[in-house]
Prior knowledge:
The complex is a heterodimer of chains A (647) and B (100). Chain A is mostly helical and 647 residues long. Chain A contains 29 helices and two strands. Chain A has a two-stranded antiparallel ribbon with strand order 1-2. In chain A, a hairpin with a 2-residue loop joins strand 1 and strand 2. Chain A is elongated, with a radius of gyration of 34 Å. Chain B has 100 residues and is mainly alpha-helical. Helices cover 78% and strands 0% of the residues of chain B. Chain B is built from three helices and no strands. Chain B has helices spanning 3-24, 28-53, 57-86. The longest helix of chain B has 30 residues, at 57-86. Chain B is elongated, with a radius of gyration of 17 Å. Chain B starts with a helix and ends in a 14-residue tail after the last helix. The interface between A and B is small, with 9 and 13 residues.
Amino acid sequence: MLAYLLLLVPMPPLGGFLLLALDPYRLDRRAVQAAALAAGCAPLLIVAPLAIANLSGAWGDQVAPIFTLGVGNFEVALAMGIDAMSAVAALTVAFVSACVMIYALDYMSYAGTPDLRRFFALMNLFVAGMLAMVLAADSITFFLGWELMGLCSFFLISYNMTSPRAFAAGQKAFLITRIADAALLAGLLLLFLEAGSVRLAELIPAGAVAEPVRGSIIAALLLIGALGKSAQVPFHTWLPTAMAGPTPVSALLHSATMVAAGAVLLARFAPVIEAHPVVAGATALAGVTTALFGAACAVAQTDVKRLLAYSSISQIGYMVAAVGVGAPAVAMAHFVVHAAFKSLLFMAAGVMSHAGGGSTAIDSLRGAARATPIAFLCYAAGAASLAGLPFVTAGWWSKEAILASALAAGPLGVAIWAAALAAAVLTGIYAFRPVLVAAATPAQPRRRCREHPLAIAPLVVLAFLSLAGGVAVAPMTELMGGHPPHPAHWVEIVGAAAALGGLAGSVAVVFTPALAARVRRARKLRAGLQFDARYYALLVRPYRRLVRHLSGREGAWVDRLGRPPDGATADPVGQATVALGLWLRRVVLTPFTPDRIDIAWMRSAAGIGRVAERGRHLQTGRVRDYALALAVGLAALLILGWGMTWR
Amino acid sequence: MTGLNALLALSGGLFVTGLFGVLARRTIVLQLVSLEIMLAGPALAFVAAGAHHGSVEGTAMFLLVLALAAAEVAVGLAIYLHLRRHAGGGDADAATRLRR
């Protein structure tokens, strides 16, 4: 019975969304903020006792069925459930989203938008989607939460509706994740056919024991879905542009929700991936490639939000690689640590850039250590955790666990370990760059800005967790059924050296003018190796050409329907349908315009009218004429009767 | 030619004579007279056939025809009086308003 409390977890944000979106009471600003805060923090209060009860072993794995429908051999059973992995994930999501919501109360009050209802309504829906996803015990609820997040991320990234850039960024995020979601949906449906049930508890083992070819296809489809949502190569291009959204959105999107959802998906379906070695290898390679690529691009960034975006890409790459080398529990541990420090970094960067006049360029952070010392220290703690400074940060423990798991995974694992180590060095370099710049003395002295306690409190809590959370990494991994690796000493020393080397590199890049200029010149790397431009040339431009072609000749047909001629933004799919309909009209209907059958029919009707008109003259009204007609008729009948009896 | 056949021919002649009168005359009174002659034809045929077969039914039918003729004359004279009063004449061809 207690399991039904799980259904309550996503309810407060959902209720908050409904309240703020419909707003029947015309709430004032304070009430909106209070509702958002209550809805954002309530899931933590509900899920914390449940998760702790589950993790402490007092309360085993639970499933709360919502709705069950059996059709033949198939069973559709909506349910929410909790096990160690979803308990950890839900706790993280609820905690981080509560922190972000508290922070957003203060942050958004500067945003200059008079109406905060839309923002907080969407944030709440976003959180509800992620909570529903991590606590789902069936693929339908899982997919529902997954898609809900995709939708909300679109709305939130393009929150600033007056900016075409923000709108384009939201559209890009939505479209790219949609491609991957189609693959995920296909994978889940195939898995359903394999298992005959939508319950994850039956789906995942069924996927693991599936016949190799089919199983590999399913695993690959799931992998594509995760790569798209997590902004991994080659789907990563949407994330850096998604920075157009407000900072709290980025903090939520990058840490515990949306982007991390792909890692959660892979960790959940890890048995399916692991059962098919080819896909597992591809997963590990995709992850580590992304980790290296993201770190390299992050080094060349000049905007702190873009830097953090590439760092998210890179860090999620570590998680994906960890699933690929068969350590999903380690990946989840890194997910937790990453959620803490990444949300911290975004929020601290938001405070610092607000104090510096709103620009998010790294150079404009100069002197932020003086202006906003607490935010700066929190940022430094987060950066240390991101870089994985040995022993004192949580990031070191979780990253080290991933590196050691990779090294223990055979010959491919060694290559992955080496690449991940290189990425770790780069991580150190980019993580400390904003810190060092912010610590540097500014050209003109800046005075101290007031830091609002609502914005600072979550930062301090998260900073503490990103430093001290390291002690929880190993127990957490064990609880989720993984084995925390115990690598040889030289491995740990190399890992520590990588992080410290990164720190040294960062100092060199910031304080050596030649290197700094070199980084500034790395335009190609800054633009993410021009993936965007290539996708544009390869996909967008041909598509646009198709649109223009369709809007040319066939578009004229469409215009005749009364639609305004708008060739550039016409939609080829819809237009093709309309063009087909118009073609059918031309071929099938036009020969009958005016309708020949109709004409013939009307002509016969008119003919009857004319006959009646003539026949009317027979009606004279004179009695004698009628009498004559009667007599003639009678005579005719008599003649007929006579003729019939003729022998 | 037997007696019956002669009588049937006579009744047919009466009928045709009456019909000619109805068609040729325009005065309502004379049309009514012609109608009576028309009725007399079949009545004669009934009586002749009854006498020929030794049956009383022919005579009974003659009585019915007489009743029919009386009713017809009553209705016809009423129409005639009405027309005289309103249309001012006994011309049957002038009374064509039922056409519309």
